[in-house]
């Protein structure tokens, strides 16, 4: 088994032995059709509501003792930079620089360099369609972490993901000087969350890289579940988060930022179990403010 690698992203640490740090819970803001966005291409949005959402996540991370991050999404270079600027000014948590367009991702990376926030930025992400401009930009401006989407449409098995990393991504990572990426295992539908869990384990075992998935991507397709109502959707979403975390998932994308509260509670609960075992059985010193201390108020006893 490869040595487990960890990545420092701002004040957070992602990866390493299971339970030594909490997983990184990620929610999307400024996404397509987000209610706070008035014009995605002009970068117009409701600043009061956006600030309230950011403040809520900041508070949840503190209350539950879990690591959280913002997946900042943009469709236009200038608008994306405005979204990043606004978010970065209101949180110290990690920021994913995320877009479906390469030019927008590159613009976000260059803005992060000018803003001085590369140390808590995650480039999201390198994929099968990665362009030379992105590799060149990453060579000039190194974020704290680079995410790779290791989802091979021709072979969706864990073995396929491992082969894709070795054969396709490794030369790119070497080129940009990235020793350890965050690996995103693709999720196509609800049942395939189980395959992603196996992929997380395979990646950690083969490379030692932090890994995880956006398990939330499949939930809009789960129409039968949606008919039961929001509470049941959130229960299943929380179940997916905890299952992925117990499989070793370091990157846990729960979907829209509005679901941050139940997801922080679910992850905090899981981290109590993982953290206590890591402390008592593996002799890991848990970081200050860990969920084990926050959720059971054991700081004084410790």
Automatic annotation (TrEMBL):
<dbReference type="GO" id="GO:0006730">
    <property type="term" value="P:one-carbon metabolic process"/>
</dbReference>
<dbReference type="GO" id="GO:0032259">
    <property type="term" value="P:methylation"/>
</dbReference>
<dbReference type="Pfam" id="PF02007">
    <property type="entry name" value="MtrH"/>
</dbReference>
<comment type="similarity">
    <text>Belongs to the MtrH family.</text>
</comment>
<keyword id="KW-0808">Transferase</keyword>
<dbReference type="InterPro" id="IPR011005">
    <property type="entry name" value="Dihydropteroate_synth-like_sf"/>
</dbReference>
<keyword id="KW-0489">Methyltransferase</keyword>
<dbReference type="InterPro" id="IPR023467">
    <property type="entry name" value="MeTrfase_MtrH/MtxH"/>
</dbReference>
<protein>
    <submittedName>
        <fullName>Tetrahydromethanopterin S-methyltransferase subunit H</fullName>
    </submittedName>
</protein>
<dbReference type="GO" id="GO:0008168">
    <property type="term" value="F:methyltransferase activity"/>
</dbReference>
